[in-house]
Design goal:
Blueprint (H helix, E strand, L loop, with lengths): L2 E2 L2 E3 L2 E3 L6 E5 L6 E6 L3 H20 L2 H17 L1 H12 L3 H18 L2 H4 L3 E7 L2 E9 L2 E5 L7 H12 L3 E5 L6 H12 L7 E3 L4 H9 L5 E5 L2 H13 L3 E5 L4 E5 L5 H13 L9 E7 L3 H13 L19 H16 L3 E4 L15 E4 L6 H4 L6 E7 L2 H9 L3 E2 L1 E5 L3 H10 L4 E4 L15 E2 L2 E2 L6 H7 L1 E9 L2
Parallel strand pairs: 1-5, 8-9, 8-11, 9-10, 11-12, 13-14, 13-19, 14-17, 16-17, 19-20
Antiparallel strand pairs: 2-3, 4-5, 6-7, 7-23, 12-22, 15-16, 18-21
Helix pairs in contact: 1-8, 2-4, 2-7, 3-4, 3-7, 4-6, 10-11
Bound molecules: nicotinamide-adenine-dinucleotide.
Nicotinamide-adenine-dinucleotide binds next to helix 8 and helix 9.
Length: about 475
């Protein structure tokens, strides 16, 4: 019996009325894990009504009590850590080690949100005029919505909901229509943690469900993470409907390798950046720009490492590279490999053809002598494909990085403090790594994409997220 998922609205699990159903396959086997109903506009209406109804009492709940529920939620996630990680592996395909990593990162955001009593503090200035005091207090917004991508089914909802809830908002989660199962588990754990009915709601679906949220007058703010075209659409549509929006978008991340790098450690970091999570990561290193005479040795080391990565199901502890999310996505990534060949890049490690006929597998793929104008150097592939471009010096390498329309992450590998400093001050990316291949900020820092990788003002996580999920009220007081 394949399970049919349900929406969680007003504290009740329900699916009545969903006419559109979608099968959720396991990317490693093609086997159907669950059936997901798409929420109609009227279900979104019910979710917004439930959230709006629950909001006043939740806003008025002392912040320490809201935090205590987050502490319990955190504890429940620790207790169910392995099952949640396994759900991530089953529906997303990534290895259990990678899934555990993302659950851990998600828990760290809950830990950050547990500090809400401190994070929400305001400011006071006495005697702004004779006998008059002024203060700034933080207030929650009301009903806020989170729309998530498939590549981190646990972590990305957890970038959003702990901070939104701890700050006193009511939340509606719309998980990815490709990985909705983990979100259901998170909702169950929130319910067990004692969150009042209606404060957290979950609706499944895709464009129709998203549109209903973006245009609903009862939704005050929207957090979105996903591809660049959809991020632009979400940002423009939600803003046109008067909402506060943060839209985290796609990426094309460059890793600059200098001739004085530590070759062994650099190679290891690049392999993990490019091929970890099967390349389905907004911080995946996608283009290596190698400077000078180290190029041949680096390409040889990368080819050696890439060709030995073990492809297989995520739950097999020997697997290093899991499947990609869907057969259609596999075909798209293979299409990029064919384009790279047609445009004249040199294929030094070919990951095609490893499929067992059931799972959506692709081995690590490496191109050398890529030119900057090629599609594989410019477009987000979101699969285990790495392109190497050769550059003459650091300036030339940085010009290549900075001409990208994206600006999520850029990394440099060097032993020179001066080159690292030049890079970190001049490179146009919001997350910079120095001898680090995945420069992912921890929960107390913002996830700081720039340029076409982010639309909005306030980023996800860290103090930005507290700013995003609250507004400031200035109170001026005089007592006669
Ligand atoms: P996606 O844009 O296809 O989907 C994201 C969400 O939008 C999903 O919930 C989906 O149901 C919804 N959606 C899809 N099409 C829509 C449409 N036309 N109108 C309204 N809603 C729509 O993204 P994805 O493939 O799930 O995720 C991968 C992308 O997310 C990559 O581009 C990756 O770089 C990006 N990403 C970015 C970050 C970041 O922090 N910048 C983090 C993770 C992933």
């Amino acid at each position: 019996m394949v399970r049919t998922l349900q929406h969680f609205i007003g504290g009740t699990w329900q699916d009545a009325g969903s006419t559109r159903l979608e099968e959720i396959p396991n990317p490693a086997t093609g086997e159907v894990l669950a059936v997901m109903p798409h929420a109609t506009a009227s279900m979104v209406e019910s979710a917004v009504a439930a959230a709006a109804g629950a909001f006043p009492a939740w806003r008025d709940t002392p912040v320490v009590e809201r935090s205590r529920i987050m502490f319990r939620f955190r504890q429940l996630l620790e207790e169910h850590f392995d099952d949640v990680a396994r759900l991530v592996t089953d529906e997303n395909g990534k290895t259990l080690a990678e899934a555990s990593g993302e659950v851990r990162r998600g828990i760290e955001v809950i830990e950050f949100a547990c500090g809400a009593p401190t994070l929400m503090m305001g400011e006071v200035l006495e005697d702004v005029a004779r006998g008059i005091d002024a203060e700034v207090v933080r207030a929650p917004l009301g009903v806020v919505a989170g729309i998530c991508p498939f590549n981190f089914p646990a972590m990305i909802p957890l970038w959003m909901l702990p901070v939104a809830l701890a700050c006193g908002n009511a939340f509606i989660l719309k998980p990815s229509d490709r990985t909705p199962i983990t979100a259901v588990r998170l909702a169950e754990l929130l319910e067990t943690a004692g969150l009042p009915r209606g404060v957290f709601n979950l609706v499944h679906g895709a464009k129709e469900t998203v549109d209903a949220l973006l245009t609903h007058p009862g939704v005050r703010a929207v957090s979105f993470v996903g591809s660049a075209p959809v991020a632009r659409y979400v940002y423009a549509t939600a803003a046109a409907h008067g909402k506060r929006v943060q839209a985290l978008a796609g990426a094309k991340n460059y890793l600059v390798v200098m001739p004085d790098c530590d070759l062994a450690r650099t190679t290891e970091a690049i392999l993990s950046s490019a091929f970890g999570n099967a390349g389905e990561r907004c911080l995946a290193g996608s283009v290596v720009v190698v400077v000078g005479e180290v190029a041949d040795r680096l390409v040889a080391a990368l080819r050696d490492g890439a060709s030995h990565l073990r492809v297989g199901a995520g739950w097999d502890s020997t697997t290093e590279l899991g499947p990609v999310i869907r057969r259609s996505h596999l075909d798209r990534v293979v299409g990029y490999i064919e384009r790279g060949l047609a445009e004249g890049a040199e294929l030094v490690c070919d990951g095609r053809g490893v499929t067992d006929g059931r799972g959506y597998f692709l081995g690590a793929t490496l191109f050398d002598r890529v030119r900057p104008e090629m599609a594989i150097a410019q477009e987000e592939i979101f699969g285990p494909v790495l392109a190497v471009i050769r550059a003459s010096d650091l300036d030339a390498a940085m010009r290549l990085v900075n001409r990208s329309p994206f600006g999520n992450m850029a990394c440099i590998f060097t032993r020179s403090g001066r080159d690292a400093r030049t890079f970190r001050t001049r490179v146009e990316a919001g997350m910079v790594g120095v001898n680090v291949g995945v420069a992912a900020p921890m929960a107390f820092f913002p996830f700081a994409g720039w340029k076409g990788s982010f639309y909005g003002d306030l980023h996800a996580t860290g103090k930005d997220s507290v700013e995003f999920y609250t507004e400031r009220r200035v109170v001026t007081t005089r007592w006669f």
